[in-house]
Each structure stands twice: as structure tokens, then as C-alpha cells.
Design a protein that fits this description.
280 residues; mainly alpha; Endonuclease Iii, domain 2; globular; 47% helix
């Protein structure tokens, strides 16, 4: 009997090997959002929720031309902001978030983006993930690892983290990766998730991390044979096309019904057709 395969151990050394491979495979990995300042990066990151970075990058030039800083965005009419960012989705909630963020900067920080997690997170529209992106890329300050859907998926498949809670996964990764690589970890893992470790169609056959991966379904995807059981992995196989049952024609349905009694009035159950009463 062949020896049972065991999952790779989760150690800082293994995490370092994974990052080294990703660095060699994706040296061009960078934050995909276009920005010129910490303010622009924060607003763009808020808009990127449930939206592609490419779409955000098409919207923000007009937005920042109209409202170039926190002061002008804080005073912007909400309806105008909504119209500019409409194509990013959830535009009403996002408009409230970015204008509220701008007002928070003006009221609490003199219009400038603060350089600490403690000062950023209380601002409207800013969560820990957005704060990590802004601090790491705009200020080169590493206070954590930004965990989005790509980071959740890839690190779980690789066996570097376990769970679906971003904060819990961030804590696991911070324990494995040295602080000086935290920001770069986000860029590399997100890039790999977009280009190779796709949610629905992972390219396991060409993945540079195949040997390091702990995902049970990697062999099936590498063989171009997606697993039948969706529970075997987080990636879903392409939806199968099912033939819808054809409905019977109206005449066929009518023909299948039992005929009504001649009187037109059904009688009591089990007693046959009802009788007409005496004519009045």
C-alpha cells in the first residue's frame, strides 16, 4: 500500500518558500488601483468593494478632477457623486462612504490621511483591509496584511491559513510572515489569485506552487478533470447546462383531466354527480 500523503506543515519557512516562488513568478505584481496620493488610494479602495480595479480606474480620474481633495469631496452634493461612481455598483452606499470619509478627514485630521491604523479605522468607509492597503502602499507602514477574497481563497488552498474570517486569517498570516513582507504578501497573493488560482477555473496545471499546495482538488484541475463534488474544494466547477422539462400543451393538460358531470355540478365525494333540484 502506498504511503498516505500528508498536508505540508504550516511553518514560517514554508510561507517564505511560497512567497519566494510568487515573487519569482509574478515580479510585476503591484496594487492595481491608480492613485497619486493617500487620499486617492483610500477613496479608490472604498470604491473597489464588489467591483473590479479596472472599472474603478475608469471612474476615479473624473471623480478626482471634480473633487481633488478631502475638502472638496466633503462638500460635494451626494447626487453628483452618485452619478459619477454609478458604474462601480452600490453607488449610493459608496457615495455616502467616500463623502463621509472626506468629512472625517477634514473634521478630525485637517484634511490629511492619518498614518496609523488606530486613526484610520474609525473613519467612515474605512475597515481594516482598506487601512492596510493605504498604510502599506501610500506610507510604507506595515501594521497588518490586507485580506480580501483572493487572499482568503489562495491561502486556504495553499494551507497557509484556515478559515473564512478575514481578521482570523490575517492573524494567522502575520504569525508566519515577517513584518517587512506584509505589504508585498498582499500584492503577490492577490495577483496570483487573479491570474492563476481563479475561484471557478484554477489553472493548477501551470501553477508554480503546485508542489507546495495543500488543496485536495489541485490534481483534478491540473488534469483538466474538475472534481464532481463541490465540497472537495472552494472552486466550483462550471455550471452544467440542464435541459428544462417541456410543459405539456394546454390541450394535453385539459385532456388529462377527468370530465365534469353532465349537470356541471360535482356531487358529494363518492356519490356520483349531484342532482338538480326541482324547478321553481
Amino acid at each position: 500500500m502506498p504511503p498516505r500523503k500528508t498536508k505540508p506543515r504550516v511553518t514560517p519557512e514554508r510561507a517564505a518558500r511560497v512567497l519566494d516562488v510568487l515573487e519569482e513568478a509574478h515580479p510585476e505584481a503591484r496594487c492595481a488601483l491608480a492613485y497619486r496620493s493617500a487620499f486617492e488610494l483610500a477613496v479608490a479602495t472604498i470604491l473597489s468593494a464588489q467591483c473590479t480595479d479596472e472599472r474603478v480606474n475608469k471612474v476615479t480620474p473624473h471623480l478626482f478632477e471634480r473633487y481633488p481633495d478631502a475638502g472638496t469631496l466633503a462638500r460635494a452634493p451626494l447626487a453628483e457623486v452618485e452619478e459619477i461612481i454609478r458604474s462601480t455598483g452600490f453607488f449610493r452606499a459608496k457615495a455616502r462612504s467616500i463623502t463621509g470619509f472626506a468629512r472625517g478627514l477634514v473634521e478630525r485630521h485637517g484634511g490629511e490621511v492619518p498614518r496609523s491604523m488606530a486613526a484610520l479605522v474609525p473613519l467612515p468607509g474605512i475597515g481594516r483591509k482598506t487601512a492596510n492597503v493605504v498604510l502599506g502602499h501610500a506610507f510604507d507602514v506595515a501594521e497588518g496584511i490586507a485580506v480580501d477574497t483572493h487572499v482568503l481563497r489562495v491561502t486556504n488552498r495553499l494551507g497557509l491559513a484556515i478559515g473564512e474570517d478575514p481578521l482570523d486569517v490575517e492573524k494567522q498570516l502575520m504569525a508566519l510572515v515577517p513584518r517587512e513582507r506584509w505589504t508585498r504578501t498582499t500584492d503577490l497573493v492577490i495577483f496570483h489569485g487573479r491570474k492563476v488560482c481563479d475561484a471557478r477555473r484554477p489553472a493548477c496545471g501551470v501553477c508554480p506552487l503546485f508542489a507546495e499546495c495543500a488543496w485536495p482538488s489541485r490534481q483534478a484541475w491540473a488534469s483538466d478533470e474538475p472534481p464532481r463534488d463541490r465540497r472537495a474544494g472552494r472552486a466550483a466547477k462550471p455550471a452544467a447546462t440542464t435541459r428544462r422539462r417541456s410543459r405539456p400543451a394546454p390541450t394535453a393538460r385539459l385532456a388529462s383531466r377527468p370530465p365534469l358531470p353532465r349537470s356541471g355540478r360535482p356531487g358529494p365525494r363518492g356519490r356520483g354527480p349531484g342532482r338538480r333540484g326541482p324547478a321553481k
